[in-house]
Write a structure and sequence with these properties.
With 194 residues, this protein is α/β, with parallel strands linked by helices. It contains eight helices and seven strands; from the N terminus they run H-H-H-E-H-E-H-E-E-H-E-H-E-E-H. The C terminus is likely disordered.
Length: 194
C-alpha cells in the first residue's frame, strides 16, 4: 500500500513536470494493464520492448509473463522514473534505457521485437515524434509482431490504421478514465519495406 502511494506521488510529480510526456495524472490500473497484455502472447515472446515505462506498472506484469529466456527493453525519458525502475527491477531479462523510443533500433543489435507495449500519450506528443515512434515500431517488429497501445482517447486510432496493416481495439472500463487498448500488426513483409 505504501509503495502504491509513493508510486502515484512520483508519477504525479512527473506529470506536473512534463505533462506532454507523461499524459496521465495516475498510473494505469492493473486491470487495464492485464487487459492490454492479454492481447498478445508474452510467454512466447523472445524480445519485448516497452515504450514509456513510467513507474513500472506494465513492466512488472510483462516480467511476470515473459519467457524465462526473453529479452526486455524498457524505454523511459524521465531520469527520475528511470531511477525508480532501476530500484524496483532486478531481473537479468530487462534492460532499462533512459532514451526515447524513437531510438529503439539503436539498442536491438539487429534483433527484431515480438511485442511492443506502449503507454505513451500519442495525442500530446509532437507530431514528428509520434510519427518517428510509429515508423521505428514498424521497422523493429517481427512480421508476426504486435504493438500494444493504451490511450485515454480513441483519437490515435486513425494514425494507427494508416501505419499498421491491422488494428484491433478494446476498451478497459476498469481504469480511470476508461482506457482504449489497441493491438496493431503490420502486414506480412511490410516491416522490411520501411
Amino acid at each position: 500500500m505504501k509503495r502504491d502511494i509513493q508510486e502515484r506521488i512520483r508519477f504525479f510529480r512527473s506529470f506536473l513536470a512534463h505533462p506532454r510526456q507523461v499524459g496521465a495524472v495516475l498510473p494505469t490500473s492493473r486491470w487495464a494493464v492485464r487487459d492490454m497484455l492479454d492481447m498478445a502472447n508474452c510467454a512466447e515472446a523472445r524480445c519485448v520492448a516497452e515504450f514509456g515505462a513510467g513507474t513500472g506498472v506494465y513492466t512488472r506484469e510483462i516480467l511476470d509473463r515473459l519467457h524465462p529466456d526473453g529479452n526486455f527493453l524498457a524505454f523511459e525519458v524521465d531520469p527520475n522514473l528511470v531511477a525508480t525502475l532501476r530500484e524496483r527491477f532486478d531481473d537479468p531479462r530487462i534492460q532499462i534505457i533512459n532514451d526515447s523510443a524513437e531510438n529503439v533500433q539503436d539498442y536491438l543489435k539487429g534483433t527484431k521485437v515480438d511485442i511492443i507495449v506502449s503507454g505513451l500519450p500519442f495525442t500530446s506528443l509532437p507530431e514528428n515524434v509520434k510519427q518517428n515512434i510509429f515508423k521505428q515500431a514498424i521497422r523493429v517488429l517481427t512480421p508476426e509482431g504486435v504493438m500494444l497501445v493504451l490511450q485515454y482517447s480513441p483519437m490515435v486510432q486513425g494514425d494507427l490504421t494508416r501505419m499498421f496493416g491491422s488494428v484491433r481495439r478494446r476498451i478497459s472500463f476498469l481504469n480511470i478514465p476508461p482506457a482504449f487498448l489497441f493491438a496493431c500488426r503490420t502486414a506480412l513483409g511490410e516491416a522490411s519495406r520501411q
